[in-house]
Amino acid sequence: DLMADIRSEGQEDEDLHAFPWRICLAGGWLDQPWVSAVHPGPVLVVNVRPHIAFKTRSGLATSTRALGMELWGTRRGGSPPRDVAPERLARLLFCVENPVGCAYVSGSQDALGLMLPGVSRLDYAGEFWPERTCSVGSEESVTWLQRVLHLVPLPSRPQGYDPLASKHVTLEVVQRLADASERAWAAIIARDAPALGAALSNTMRCWRDMLPETVPAGSAELIEPYDHHHGCLFSGAGGGFLLVVANEGESVKDGFQIEITRSPSPPRPRARVDELAMAAQSKKQTIINHHAALSDNLGRLLALLCVAMQVVVLLGSALGWRTQE
User: Fold this and answer.
1) CA-based R_g, the chain, Å
2) How far is CA 20 from CA 97, 108, 116, 221, in A?
3) Pair type for strands 119-124 and 41-48
4) How many CB atoms are closer than 10 A to CB 105?
5) Which of 44, 108, 212, 275 is most exposed by smallest CB count within 10 Å?
6) pLDDT digits (tens, 9 = 90+) for 128-162
7) How many Å from the N-terminal Cα to the C-terminal Cα in the chain?
8) ∠ CA 59-15-66 to the nearest 5 degrees?
């Protein structure tokens, strides 16, 4: 069956399961300046733990992810440094993927979605990097999203696929795309499944109108079995997975659910050089004071012994004199 085939395909690369993954939930393409310069808007990304069904060429930022794995040596047991802010790590990864002079600049939502834990909102306004970022702070909303969002495996996009072969970027369609993303964000905060499903379906309509090649041929047949749910969206340009929003506890045919990451406990800050020097000096002074106190005590003990010996000599002399008498 399709799920078995997808699972088999996902095993092609053992490193598919060694690094977090990114799902673009809404607003895709607004991270490109030629879109957000027409009208600003947010992109919603979800950082998720590896799943056996994840695969390449499916809109999950796998090329950016592969660079991150190489950069931080995850194949050798390494990991991104925990004492560096996630957004700083994302900027480093973005620069590695897009060196000066590159012909095409990949959207920064890939790097940010891979590095920022949880569910994040990235607000773009005509630049490659968002004006601001924020995350869903409610654990209840994050847990709720895990329960209502399902991924249904679809065929991966073919080699040589070009999502930009046809463009119809207008103010009207970009405004609709930004509005759908805003509504998806509000739905997550309010934990409103029908509103979230509608926002995802509206996002797909905007993709189809703006970049027709991003919606796979025959998409109506792929979506039809899920029409009775609240809404759906392809995981990326050309397919890969269908993101389906259902009620909590409701099953979705051939679907699986994901685990969203949470912010890790903040690492203990590194001591500064001057703090380390002060600590070493304090320890050294403690040892010196201890030795000085020990020397003083030994001196007093020797003095007492000398006095005691003198007393013994005097007593001995006195006793000897009396004996002679």
Assistant:
1) 34
2) 17, 16, 10, 31
3) antiparallel
4) 14
5) 275
6) 999 999 999 999 999 999 999 999 999 887 777 78
7) 125
8) 50
H or E element, residue 300: helix 273-324
CA-nearest of 97, 146, 93, 92 to 118 is 146
Strands across the sheet containing 149-153 = 149-153, 241-245, 231-234
Which candidate, 62, 188, 174, 186, places its Cα nearest to that of 124? Answer: 174
Collapsing DSSP states into helix, strand and coil, what is residue 30? coil
**What digits encode the pLDDT tens for the residues 15-61?**
555 689 999 999 999 999 999 999 999 999 999 999 989 988 888 99
CA–chain centroid gap for 293, Å, is 55
Exposure class string for 74-86: b at 16+ Cβ within 10 A, else e: beeeeebeeeeeb
Residue 90 CA to residue 108 CA, distance in Å, equals 8
- Hey, what are 71's tokens? 């950069």
Task: Output the pTM of the full model.
Answer: 0.77
Instruction: Give strand pairing partners of 224.
Output: none
Contact between 62 and 20 under an 8 Å Cβ cutoff? The reply is: no
Structure-block tokens of residue 154: 């679809």
